[in-house]
Structure formats: C-alpha cells, structure tokens
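Sample A.
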Amino acid sequence: MKPDRVIEAGKKKDVSVKLAGGGLFSKKEPEELAVKVEYQCDTKLMGYDARILFSFAPLSRVLHTLRVTVVLPMSSEKADMDVLADTIARQLDTKYKDQGEPAAESMIGGLVDKVRDVKRRSWKGGGDTVTMESHWKMMGGEVVVLYVDDKLAEKAAVEDRRVREKKLERSSGGDRSKF
C-alpha cells in the first residue's frame, strides 16, 4: 500500500493521516531523498487514545511497518493496562501463531525491562511479524503493537542504504578523490 491509499483510507474512516515529524512548519510531502517516510494519525481504539505510525520504504513508498500505540490516561491503573494488553493478545492469538515472549536484546536490556515492568509477546503469520509491548509508567501506561511485513521491511532496508549512499554522493562533491 502506498501513502496516498493510506491517506484515502483514513479519510473514509474520518481520520486525518499526515506526514509524521511535522510541527508548525510541516511539509505535506516527504523530501525526494528522505530516509524515513512516515505518516501518522491519532484516533481512538478500544476506548483509548491511539497513535498509528505508518512507515514506508524510502524509494518505492510501500508500507512495510505499522506501529499502533495505545495510551492509557493518567487516571488509569496498571490493572487497566494489563486487561487491555491481554485483550489485544487474545485477538492476535486468533490471527497469528504465537511465538511467545521474545528475549531482551542484552542483559542490560533485560534488567531495564524488569525495572520498567515491560511485557512483550510476538506472533508470526503470512509473512508478518507482530510484536506487542506493554509497560507501565509513572503517569499511566501504554500498549504498543508493531506489525512488520518481513519481506517489505527487508526491501525498505536496502532502499534506505541506497538513499543514504545517494545523499553522501551528492554532498561529498570533490572530496571523493581525497581518500
């Protein structure tokens, strides 16, 4: 799926999808050699505020990753987050094959996860990897679900490298012969 189709789908659901990373002077289109091409929208999911981030490959502009962040209000309790995460996990269990709890990337990461009370689960199915992470903060909690199309994410990584090489080539000018 390309950005224009995501924007159109958002309009049909009365959700405004815009280029991510904007601010007061945000652009409507990503630059020609953008490394990150991301769009976002804010909506409600399961009664909570949610932000959806759509990540596209930099050259082909195909959607490869979808990140859904559901934020619990400050008035909520940790039990609310646990119930929400369990409910989402049950829905994902029906659609994908459970891969269990992924291990932390390092020993330090594991310790940080224990301190932050982070819980993770992952699923696979149909060429997709789905990861859910929930963690409680001082001011509420959040549940993040990450959908990755594995083949398109690989393609995006190759395109990312190509874009970075083009940017370096454009900016290096006569410096290339100095090495």
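Sample B, a different protein:
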Amino acid sequence: MNSARWVPFSLLLAGSPIVSAHANPAPLDEVRLAQCMLENTTSDEESAFKDVMVAALRDDNDALKVSLDQLSTVMMDLALTKCEVALSALATPQFQTAAGLYGQQVGEKLMKKAFEKLN
C-alpha cells in the first residue's frame, strides 16, 4: 500500500477545528509514533482499516467517507491515549507522516494476512 494514499486522510485531521485550535505543537518522532500505534493496534483498529479498504474497492464513496471518519477517530485515539501525543500535535506534518507510515504498515499487514488465507 502506498503511504501517499494515507496523506490526504491525515490532512483531513489537520483541518479539524479541534486540532486547529491548538498552536505550537511539540515535535514528534514519526517513526516512533507509527511504531507505537502499530504496537497498540487491536482487531478493532484493524476492522476500521478493513472497512476503508472494502469501501474503496467497491467504489462506495458514501461508505468510504464514513469509514475514513471512523479510521481518523481510531488513529487519533491511538495517538492520544496509547502513545501520549498531545492534542495539538495532531495538526503537525510529523503526525501526518506518522499516520501515513502507520497506514502503510497496517495495510501491508492486512494484505499479508489475506494472502496467507489463500494458501
């Protein structure tokens, strides 16, 4: 999965009024944050990713919008509650990069699981 596909999703977060209301976010280590989010991913978070993938494959724009909203909530929750990221950091380019890395890694993991089932 191409990390560039997840950048527009993370840009959606930056436009959120909750996120935009906070200035001067602390710098983030993108790789460390992506790894923390990955380590704390459960089947619930994976289900949110699957919903996005299925909606995209079906070209169902309404379902895709809903599932992307749910996925953004999942990603913000992981960052805020499991990885100790400040709310203001969600609007930074570093978070966008971390979200892209995380999305790419989870997507690859899910695709690997799917192909293993075929064997």
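Observation for Sample B: Residues 1-12, 14-23 have pLDDT under 50 and may be disordered.
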